[in-house]
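Q: Here's a chain of 578 amino acids. Please give me its 3D structure as tokens.
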Amino acid sequence: MTSPPSDARPYDRGPGGGEPEDPHALLDRARRLSAAGGHPAAGGAWERAATALRRAGGAITPADHADALDATALDCRGGARPAAETLFSRAAELHERSGQLGKALISRARSLVTGPEPGATVCAGLAELCERAAGLHAAGRATVAQTATVLLLRCRVLADLLDTTPDPAAEAAALGGDLARLVAFALPHRADPAVLGPLSDSRALLGRVTAPDDPPAALAHLRAAVADHGASGRPWPPTEAELLLAGVLRATGARTEAATVLRTAVGSGEENVLLRAADRARLRLALARTLEGAEASEGLDPRGGDGGGRGRGRPRRPGGEEVVSLLTEAVRLSDRSGEDPRLGVLARLRLGSAHAARGRWQEAAAVLEQVLAGPARDGDEAARVRARAWLAFCALRLGEPERAARQYALAAAEARLRADSRHGAALSHRAAHALGTAGAPEKSARAYERAADLWRSVGDHGAAARSLRARARQVRTAWGAARAEVILEEALREAQRGLRGVPAPTERERLRAELVLIREELTDLDGPGADDDTGPGLWLPPDPYEVSGRYQVNVYGDVGGAGPPAATAPGTRVQGCV
């Protein structure tokens, strides 16, 4: 038997954790776990059975070897995931030699799914396998469960590719029809526990595909998926379906019900050894997000306690210790899992912002520094920018404006490297403010000038005028009122330029308000001036690892939200279907 890669989940040691006593009993147990359809303990059970057989002088049959390879491949996560393709291919060959053609098709489909990035070639290969599965089923050589699993694997790949198609909504509707037919195909056979597994997963995927366009229908599909999973007798929790269900409930405003779903999931998984640490972490992240509420879902605004109003500097949510506890545990579980380092980064960012929202600047800074201390990986840029922005905010509240200015400037530079000029401008404005607070008006004035130039480059004349008005205050401090007047007149022209070209009523009102402030300062150049702490409305980059796809799923289970697709991100899968 092929041993699992070193990064795979450790093999199950079985009841009591001791060495096997009866190889044949262990072999029967491994067969039962494989028959359950992706049981997380199957890989370990097969390894123990194979070891016991070798010690007894026996050998594993090709049919059992194929099941063992399938189970081992399903355990390949994180860095070990690329090895799954070869294991599934070898399993398919052994299944064919043993006459198990339905199992062979599943293994071949899984090999395609776990191989290179899915594209036209993979989709064509899966379509061919689906035709062969339908033919075998018609001839009585593939079961309903096996046929449904092959069809489901193709649908899952198509779901992940929806947002890359020319007409995603039309493709989603077509895929929804395919999934509805798949459910109808499996439903008459739901008395068979083996069918309930792919039926549950098909309904969960149908809920995901339906969620952006028909949330009520998605809720019905997802509730049915959770119920089918329970009826199937599969002992591991339906984490993916629960996360999706809670995500749709959040999106429809039913946050109390979403919290109930997630609390139940967290509780049911607490003692379940089959629930992976990564899934435990995701459930806690999702529950914390739900409890924080709509306004708090992006954390405390680092411009101040009320998101830009006048009560700046006050933590907005002094309570909510449950959120902090959940996020602390999510960090621990993410580290323990080791499957996807991004999960730990995201958990730390959420925990840092939760501490900051409660005025615990030191605790927040310590957590955020851990994000920056970790190795920089491709795709982590937004996370590092976000961590620096939060760290700068905490430094300001701790009375360390020089440190805040450095972090804001670094965040702005990294944002610009990502071609994110709007956030680069906003963070440059914040760096300039921190420099002014630190008593460095010359440096502050230059930083405000850079921010204004960046705002101009993206066509936001109102924000450019605001940065110029703030620059004028620093210029007045450093070089006097006469030079400040020149800058204010430039700000006035910038705001007027914007007013001429902006049709939106709300934006026009914002520009008119800016004009009033500029004119007030022009008439009172000899006055003391007011410190600038308003900042541009956009200050922070999106959540790390964001995707813009309407039909993608983030780590919290939100469809169309930020984050990698839950079913295809490295190290994650729906158990039994890869």
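Q: Can you summarize the key feature?
A: Residues 1-17, 294-316, 533-539, 562-578 have pLDDT under 50 and may be disordered.
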